[in-house]
Design a protein that fits this description.
Strand content: 15-25%
CATH architecture of the largest domain: 3-Layer(aba) Sandwich
Number of helices: 7
Pfam family, one: Pribosyltran
CATH topology of the largest domain: Rossmann fold
GO molecular function: glycosyltransferase activity
Number of domains: 2
Helix content: 40-55%
Number of strands: 8
Distance between the termini: 36 Å
Order of helices and strands: HEHEEEEHHEHEHEH
Strand order of the largest sheet: 2-1-6-7-8
Shape: globular
Keywords: Glycosyltransferase, Transferase
InterPro entries: PRTase-like, PRTase_dom
CATH class of the largest domain: Alpha Beta
Length: about 220
């Protein structure tokens, strides 16, 4: 399956998620592209929309290679075998971790106006992105949410992800909802006709519109 764009992917996921959260559902979307997908789910199912902002920690000489991730509270998760292979220690990445923490704070304040969340404790929480490759940022988000909110149910919903990544994530959630698990997976963008970059301003506008709809 190839999705026309993130809006279509969100609508298809909403159909799969119907009835999953009986009440008090919260969609926590990963910016930027995941917010477009998550907004459709929240709109169709009548749920709260908010963002969760984990950040990838890339290899020092190849930033595209994910060797870990960090959450807004500074909790870090590393791919230990890869660190060993690259002959790196966690302390070698301290400066990079701090830089990503500052970027998380910048985006939280830009998108939401504050770092603190409403009390989502004990609610059904759906974590949404526009697709998953390695899964390290998503894993960081899931563990942070589990620790922070102790949700009644934690669901991961994405349009597309490779099966080996999902195998690593299934123990982190109560339910996985994934539309496509292709064998030939190279990048999330290959499964969208329109995978144009979502801007900060679009994220801000989407969140404002959803807040107004909920008022």
């Amino acid at each position: 399956m190839v999705f026309a764009d993130r809006v279509e992917a969100g609508k298809k996921l909403a159909m799969e998620l119907a009835g999953t959260c009986k009440q008090n559902g919260v969609v926590l979307a990963i910016p930027r592209g995941g917010v477009v997908v998550g907004a459709e789910i929240a709109r169709i199912l009548g749920m709260t929309l908010d963002v969760i902002i984990p950040r990838k920690i890339g290899a020092p000489h190849n930033p595209e290679v994910a060797i870990g991730a960090v959450t807004q509270d500074g909790i870090t998760f590393f791919n230990k075998p890869l660190l060993n292979f690259l002959e790196l220690e966690e302390k070698d990445l301290a400066r990079m971790v701090e830089r990503e923490k500052r970027e998380i704070e910048r985006r939280m304040l830009l998108y939401r106006g504050q770092m603190e969340y409403p009390d989502y404790s004990g609610r059904c929480i759906i974590v949404v992105d526009d697709g998953i490759a390695t899964g390290y940022t998503v894993k960081a988000a899931l563990r942070w949410i589990r620790q922070k909110f102790k949700p009644q149910k934690l669901i991961l919903a994405v349009p597309v992800a490779p099966q080996d990544t999902l195998d690593r994530l299934e123990d982190e959630v109560d339910q996985l909802v994934v539309l496509e698990t292709p064998d030939d997976f190279y990048a999330v963008g290959q499964f969208y006709l329109d995978f144009s970059q979502t801007t900060d301003q679009e994220v801000i506008q989407i969140l404002k519109e959803r807040t107004a709809q909920q008022a």
